[in-house]
Amino acid sequence: MSETDYDIQPHTKVVRGAKRASYDRETVHRIIDEAIICHVSTVLDGRPVMIPTAHWRVGEQFYIHGSSKNRILNALANGAEACICIAHLDGLVMARAAMHHTANYRSVVMYGKARVIEDPALKMEQAALFIEKLAKGRWEKIRHPNLQELKATMFLEFDMEEVSAKMRAGDPADDTEDYSVPVWAGVLPCRTVWGDPIDDSLLDRSLLGNATPA
Predict the structure, then answer these.
(1) Can you tell me the distance from the alpha carbon of 88 to that of 189, in angstroms, rounded to the nearest whole number?
(2) With CB atoms counted within 10 Å of each terminal CB, which end of the chain scores lower, N or C?
């Protein structure tokens, strides 16, 4: 175990497909940073619940935000443990045998309890970091949240301590006797690509000058 790895804990240890596991901090950070959406789950009133939400990372702290009235965020704010998952689909792996069809992917699973950020100045700072993740340089161009908007928004911070990653890459792993099956086999790559910007229907372009869409 390298000093740059996260500690392996009973519930973060990858058992099924252990050779695909990674506890390397740089690998985990990259998977988190390249994603915009995570899925956050917990138990509320005896039932499992989950929300998809945007996220960002600063060092070894992980952040989400949302309405101060959101019942799942409030459960986390009151001490409920979260399980957070992030996943990238990199390709469909098309094998010769049905059993060996799979996917190439990168994923992170994290467990932890949240801290609520109460200080308006700190909330403003995190709002800026979130916007800058979406579009670098945009924070300085837009109207910043007012105190009422900050009050209506909950920011939650998690320590990244109980974390693991799991990944797959490469060709299908067919059985030797199946390599003679007359069917195409390989990987269908999957990539997320941004499209061309679409103007807001109420956009006044005369206000923009040479400003870029972001």
Answers:
(1) 12
(2) N
Which secondary structure element, helix H or strand E, spans residue 187, and what is its range? strand 186-189
**pLDDT tens by residue, 106-137:** 999 999 999 999 999 999 999 999 999 999 99
pTM, rounded to two decimals: 0.92
Q: Which of 81, 88, 77 is nearest to 32 (CA)?
A: 88
Rounded CA separation 25/188 (Å):
29
79: left (phi over 0), alpha (psi -120 to 50) or beta: left
DSSP secondary structure string, 105-171? EEEEEEEE-EEE---HHHHHHHHHHHHHHHSTT-TTTSPPP-HHHHHTEEEEEEE--EEEEEEE-SS
Q: What are phi and psi of 151, to 5 degrees?
A: -65, -35
Report yes or no: 33 and 57 within 8 Å, Cβ to Cβ.
yes
d(CA 170, CA 179) in angstroms, rounded, equals: 16
19 three-class SS: helix
Beta strands 153-159 and 61-67 are antiparallel
> What pairs with residue 154 in β-bridges?
66
One-letter amino acid of 2: S
Distance CA 156, CA 61 (A): 10
